[in-house]
């Protein structure tokens, strides 16, 4: 006898980064480069002003319930930020953001409101595994995967196009996650223009197909190379001119303001259809009401003070510079050790991560365990051939050693 529903039977706790991070934690002296957080000296890289901000909040402000879609000031401040980050978009098309419990809940909302069993989900071949848990196990979507990079290790517009055109379903969700987790890649300005044009032409050629373009902007702002800094919405907003395209933006203070545990995310819609925009906000609030009911008031009170504070904004920029310094150190170490003669380092230019594809003769899970237990570095084995490393977790002085030891471990295999 089973007490579980069909969903209950199918849902799993993936043996993913959280499990591997716990394995790393129990190895004495191990450096944890598995998880999507930024650290300094093995502690979370906070904004120094956050402790001051917390002490300024009166309990009469944070103890009452928050409105279901979030505090009005929180929503207005985030909309102002989106408009500032994306000056080309039409502010009348942009909905007022609604607060979610992290970006994960935003993904769950986008999945549940717009897709169901038998619909399609288009993803790169390397993606955050929670997408699959939400869209396929919970909702029964069919996943189509395109190769993010071609045989020359270049971003593949052609494979994206071919995969999109091969989809037979009439409703398609496309998740655009730039900077990408796990690869740390953001398309160049030209690549992003081409990508959007492929979607635009497809939408016009297939007017009976509905396209939900979901931008997962979890790592927004951490762009480290010129010509690879265009925000996704600054390119996709043009798709709103197609009546069969809906644009959904997901983001939050999680990574942008070094506030992972506060779990303040946002879901925002971009459409020229005024009545649809109102309905989207109403339906989203209904979904929020039926799940978390209302977001954390305390977290929002903290977030408001971070966003509306020149000191904390300056601290954020300083932290961003630290992550960029680590990125540059990593690029130098990879070039110096020439590890790309032994493995394939996938292109990366942004975010927290980079990904290495191992030779067919080396199993990624076996490599991870050897690297952890013998070299004291915890990395994330995503599948049998890919290793993801969070350089955001590595103090700058540790990066050359990690690359040197990675090379040594590869050579031992």
UniProtKB/TrEMBL annotation:
Alphabetically ordered keywords of this record: Aminotransferase, Pyridoxal phosphate, Transferase
Gene Ontology molecular function, alphabetical: pyridoxal phosphate binding; transaminase activity
Annotated ranges, domain Aminotransferase class I/classII large: 47-405
UniProt keyword Heme, yes or no: no
One of the GO BP terms on file: amino acid metabolic process
EC number: 2.6.1.-
Protein's UniProt keywords contain Transferase: yes
Cofactors (names): pyridoxal 5'-phosphate
Family in the record: Belongs to the class-I pyridoxal-phosphate-dependent aminotransferase family.
Name used for this protein in its record: Aminotransferase, class I/II
Organism annotation: Gemella haemolysans ATCC 10379
Lineage: Bacteria, Bacillati, Bacillota, Bacilli, Bacillales
């Amino acid at each position: 006898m089973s007490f579980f529903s069909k969903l209950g039977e199918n849902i799993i706790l993936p043996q993913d980064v959280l499990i591997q991070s716990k394995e790393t934690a129990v190895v004495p002296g191990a450096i944890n480069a598995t998880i999507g957080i930024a650290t300094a000296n093995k502690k979370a890289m906070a904004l120094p002003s956050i402790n001051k901000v917390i002490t300024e909040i009166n309990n009469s402000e944070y103890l009452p319930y928050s409105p279901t879609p979030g505090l009005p000031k929180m929503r207005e401040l985030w909309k102002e930020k989106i408009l500032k980050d994306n000056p080309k978009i039409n502010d009348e098309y942009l909905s007022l953001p609604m607060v979610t419990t992290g970006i994960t809940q935003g993904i769950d909302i986008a999945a549940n409101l717009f897709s169901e069993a038998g619909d399609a989900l288009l993803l790169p071949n390397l993606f955050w595994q929670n997408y699959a848990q939400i869209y396929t196990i919970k909702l029964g979507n069919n996943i189509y995967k395109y190769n993010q990079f071609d045989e020359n290790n270049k971003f593949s517009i052609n494979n994206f196009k071919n995969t999109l055109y091969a989809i037979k379903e009439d409703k398609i969700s496309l998740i655009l996650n730039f900077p990408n987790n796990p690869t740390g890649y953001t398309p160049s300005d030209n690549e992003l223009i081409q990508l959007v044009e492929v979607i635009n032409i497809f939408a016009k050629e297939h007017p009976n197909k509905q396209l939900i373009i979901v931008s997962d902007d979890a790592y927004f702002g951490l762009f480290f190379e010129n010509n690879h800094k265009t925000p996704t919405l600054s390119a996709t907003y043009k798709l709103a001119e197609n009546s069969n395209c809906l644009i959904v933006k997901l983001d939050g203070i999680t990574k942008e303001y070094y506030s992972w545990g506060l779990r303040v995310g946002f879901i925002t819609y971009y459409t020229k259809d005024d009545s649809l925009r109102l309905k989207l906000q109403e339906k989203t609030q209904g979904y929020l009401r039926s799940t978390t009911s209302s977001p954390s008031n305390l977290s929002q009170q903290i977030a408001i003070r971070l966003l509306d504070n020149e000191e904390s904004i300056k601290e954020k920029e300083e932290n961003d510079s630290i992550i960029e310094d680590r990125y540059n150190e990593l690029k130098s170490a990879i070039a110096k050790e020439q590890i790309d003669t032994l493995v394939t380092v996938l292109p990366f230019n942004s975010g927290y991560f980079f990904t290495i594809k191992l030779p067919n003769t080396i199993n990624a899970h076996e490599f991870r365990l050897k690297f952890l237990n013998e070299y004291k570095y915890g990395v994330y084995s995503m599948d049998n051939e890919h290793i993801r490393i969070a350089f955001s977790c590595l103090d700058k002085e540790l990066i050359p050693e990690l690359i040197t030891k990675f090379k040594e471990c590869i050579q031992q295999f």
